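Q: Fold this one first, please.
A: Sequence and structure below.
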Amino acid sequence: MLEVGGGSGYFAALLRAAGAGRVDSLELLPELACQARRNLTRAGVEGVVVWAADGRKGLPGRAPFDAIVVSAAAAGIPPALMEQVGPRGKLICPVTGPADERLWCLQRDGGGWRELDLGACRFVPLR
């Protein structure tokens, strides 16, 4: 699983506790990525690797992913992330629209995508 917008490591720890296999977590700010690693180590959370990287580009060297979860609002769903979703995988991403932000779930379905609008939401911007 890929998490974009790792922050403090909290959500990655929740994903592991909920039964996700290995979690790759991307955080743009190197100092925050370092803090997330320390937090996860102190909490005894294993199976999470925190990377300091631009989440809009994903992690192509580890793709494909069964699921990608984005924890920051994007102007649109980053194409690089869509390319890294495996067969029948899901991508959940908040998207900033003209009037509000909407949380979208996209699932690969054969050669295309099924899209589900999960409703209004509020997230920090994806940078």
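Q: Good. Now the second chain.
A: Here it is, same layout.
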Amino acid sequence: MAQGKLAPVRKGNKDEGLWLLSFADLSCILIAFFVLLLSYSKIDTDKMKQVEDSTKPKEKKQEQSKTPVESLEAVSKKLEDKVKELKLNDKMKVLYDADGVTLELTENLLFPTGSATAKSAFLDSLQPVLKLVGSTSERYHLTLEGHTDDRPIASGPFHSNWELSAARGISLLHILKARGIREERMSVHSYAHTKPKTPYATLRGLTLEKARATNRRVVIRIN
């Protein structure tokens, strides 16, 4: 029976793999060098802070730089206290809800009937309230609304309740602008007779007249 031949054993080069030892030595030397370099270096905390700030999102940086914003609930409480102090509860109403703060002024407080020119006497008495409105955060927007009753305008400079309610809103805007509130924070909405606070259905006589007086108003919404 013939015997098979064994495959010859391949002898490797004895120098094969020596480069790994050299690479490992070089790596250790480099690590030691950088550790030594770091131990002698001084960290500039100010520059580190600048680098950290530069990597933060813009919105987050702006938020951190702002002073704390007074809540709308706190704004509402201040306005309520001021209205009570001035004894204007029957002419001004303050409401705080999910939509923000609503400051409602009756027509006879600020404007003569059928007019958009503010009464100077009442403007003086309203200064403390308007000052509080003007002191609210720039973050909040002011919506100025004009409302009328349902009676058509028969004479005067305005052709309809739409023009009158718009003119009153614009007049209020100029009043607030004169007290330092930027135009960009304000907008004017004219509603005429379309959003009555007290519905007219079934009302007659004095009750109807009271409802009309209630519905003639200007509103400042802060949100």
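Q: Anything worth noting on the second one?
A: The first helix runs from residue 18 to 40.
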